[in-house]
Design a protein that fits this description.
The chain has 15 helices and seven strands. The protein is of the alpha/beta class. The protein has one domain: Rossmann fold. Strand 4 and strand 5 form a beta hairpin. Helix 1 packs across helix 2, helix 4 crosses helix 15 and helix 13 runs antiparallel to helix 14.
């Protein structure tokens, strides 16, 4: 009897000792990761958090954007970023959090970190209407971006690493994302101010002949660019759009904060959209802008709109063969001026 009891106690001690070793190993792994690996992951996947740490809460304005902020043709007389122009024109210290291809879904977890910033008074968040459409929502690089989003969350670094290691995020492959995009292009009916458009879907619109000459031969460079506009902007915003869902969450978070959020609607090349794809396309872009303005203007505390959809003239767009929000310095200056006017019109909180 005593022998069985001693054996049981011995087994319990061995199990307890092993569990202790496992716990110690787990704690040591977390410590090693936090000390040596997390700084590398933070730099690679959560560069914005690295910037927040370096800033040490000394900026009272944060500018959140993508390549529209820093793109320049390098040959112009002014290569400053929009955020840097804002800093110079306003006399305020601006922290720039910008990275190519980022969008609302990637910006969203950032706002959980802003609650700790005591100096923060204004956040400028770029609203790039093109990124609300199927080509960006279902982009081939979206899986990589979603991995970055994990590391931007306000969670234990080791937990974020485990989610990344075990792919606990939206990691659909390119084929699956492409299928989703074509589902939208093929089946989503396009409407404008309550009427269905003559070309009811993106697929239909891209299928029609464009810019034929007297022999019926199409001007292919114009035709290809026109189709780019149709694919990029051929969608109707509604509450089920993933970018709208992300922006809803951001607006709700900010309504409880102590800083102002300025939704900066970027300029799109409306003139080219009209001349290449027709007035219906130009008005479709305007309609989506109106949806955003009506959804957020005056509806959430601390949330304001800076509408620059048609601020930058066509000649100040930097690229002529694609649909991007890249501006020559004159365009970036116009955007910066509008932001400065907006943040100066509100009292500091």
């Amino acid at each position: 009897m005593n022998q069985d009891k001693n054996k049981t106690e011995s087994n319990i001690k061995r199990i307890a000792l092993r569990l202790g070793y496992i716990a110690a190993l787990f704690v040591a792994s977390i410590w090693v990761y936090n000390q040596w690996v997390w700084p590398l992951d933070r730099y690679d996947h959560a560069y914005f958090l690295d910037q927040l740490v370096k800033d040490q809460d000394t900026s009272d304005v944060i500018y959140i954007g993508e390549s529209s902020n820093f793109w320049s043709n390098k040959d112009s007389g002014d290569i400053r970023e929009i955020s840097k122009m804002i800093e110079h024109k306003s006399g305020r210290k601006v922290l720039n959090l910008s990275r190519s291809a980022y969008h609302m879904g990637i910006y969203r977890p950032l706002f959980a970190h802003f609650t700790e910033l005591k100096q923060l008074k204004d956040v400028i968040l770029t609203v790039n209407i093109r990124t609300f459409g199927p080509p960006c929502v279902h982009s081939t690089i979206e899986t990589s971006l979603q991995k970055d989003r994990i590391f931007l969350k306000k969670e234990m670094p080791f937990l974020k690493k485990m989610k990344a290691v075990f792919s606990l995020y939206d990691n659909r492959n390119e084929k699956e994302r492409d299928a989703c995009m074509w589902q939208n292009w093929t089946h989503d009916t396009l409407s404008l101010y309550g009427r269905v458009l003559p070309h009811q879907t993106v697929k239909d619109w891209c299928g029609v002949t464009k810019f034929p000459d007297s022999l019926g031969q199409e001007d292919m460079p114009k035709r290809v660019l026109a189709d780019h506009y149709v694919k990029a902007y051929g969608f109707n915003l509604n509450e089920t759009n993933q970018r709208i869902i992300d922006l809803d969450h951001i607006a709700l978070t900010v309504s409880k904060a102590k800083y102002n959020l300025h939704l900066l609607i970027l300029s799109e090349n409306i003139q080219w959209a009209d001349s290449l794809a027709g007035s219906d396309m130009a008005n479709l872009i305007r309609q989506n802008r109106d949806y955003i303005v009506n959804r957020y203007k005056g509806k959430h505390k601390n949330v304001h709109i800076i509408d620059n959809l048609e601020t930058v003239p066509a000649q100040f767009f930097g690229e002529k063969d694609w649909t991007t929000e890249h501006y020559f310095w004159q365009g970036r200056a116009l955007i910066a001026d509008s932001v400065v006017r907006s943040i100066q019109s509100l009292p500091l909180q």
